[in-house]
Amino acid sequence: MRSTRMRFFVAIFSMAIPLAGLSADDSSGDSSVIREIQAYVEAFNAEDAAKVESMWAENATHMDHELNQRTDGRAAIMADIAAVFDLPEPVTLSGSVDNVRMVTDSVASIDGKINVTVGDFEPTTNKFSAILTKQDEKWVIDSMEEMSVPSPVSAAAALSKLDWLIGSWQDASGEMRVRCSVKRAIGGSFLVRSFEASADDEAVAQSTQVIGWDPRLGQFRSWTFDADGSFGEGVWSENGGQWLIKSAQVLADGQTASGTFVMTPQDSDHFAIELIGRTIEGELQPSSPEVTVSRVGSSDEADDSTTTTEPSSGQ
């Protein structure tokens, strides 16, 4: 039997459109698309097969990427939809439309997600992309693709991309020596980094940073706390072999600071780091020079009392 996910697509399609903040009352192209889809869902929920059929293009296609299954033509698609009307189990639909784009006056592209619950089974979630075309002043579904939504990656699994940071590090260039250690913590779902800068064997700055995976952003985030009372957060992104950490901080005196740390792994035992675009209260500050940080121990040798590598944005 063909995938039932395609059969449920149209109902959720029109139900979800208003969630995108679009109104069906104005005369814009996307609103006319919405009105047509709203009419479709009424026909679908009423199990009006003739009406539903009229709203698919004759040569429409459906592609299920998970099953690698393509359905060509309105007749074949309607055979699948008719099977939904005969299902003994109740079907619950929910979802959202993420984007409606008018390609031309007669072509619209729509992207979103659908959640399908059949009887007592667990709901399934899929992404869809559809193309609607205007034929004889009426919008019809020309093609639709469905893709499974990847299972959310666990925080611990996501952090494996930063495993190269685990261990003890030191930057001894210049007059100040900077040491840090990095360890997994809290069940392996976070990295904890501790930083200590010293001059003449006397600590002049200390901070602790926690790095975790944000499943909503799909990015790493970090939270930094300094011994002087300042604190900040950052969002990490990978770009061409470098890590960019866009940071914002509240300094001990209440001023705000921001900047982007650029971290460049060089090999398993060295990485370079610099701070660019640094501001305090919106005023641009000189960028910090790039420094090279060297590994001095493994994660097993890292000191529990210390864990960061970069200096504060406000320094």
Automatic annotation (TrEMBL):
It holds the Pfam family SnoaL_2. It comes from Novipirellula artificiosorum. Residues 37-140 form the SnoaL-like domain. This is SnoaL-like domain protein. Keywords: Signal. Residues 305-315 have a biased composition (Low complexity). The keyword Signal applies. The keyword Membrane does not apply.
